[in-house]
Amino acid sequence: MEIHESAEDYLETILVLTEKIGNVRSVDISNEMGFKKSSVSVAMKNLRSTGHIVVDENGYIKLTPAGKEVADMIYERHKFFSTWLISLGVNKETALEDACRIEHVISKESFSAMKEFLNSKNV
Length: 123
What we know:
This protein is mainly alpha-helical and 123 residues long.
């Protein structure tokens, strides 16, 4: 099942916030991403319907195994590309912005090859 870039961003944000603050609500996502609460609410409804998240009776948002798989993949790519770009001398803000774009469009095959190549070179 193909997932849209915006959904990947939401899942990544839920993962990062869960690691940072524990229990995550829509308002936390809204504050972190700078989106209106209504936009986040619609996105959470869509992610629930695709089986990527569950929301408990207290309004806490949890990643399902499928959601965590996507979030882990995107976050790994984000960390990899931002770290690599910074090591190349790209300023941090630009590196983070570029990593966010690259993480969504690169194929699994290309990402694996790049990771393997750079790890073999100890970069």
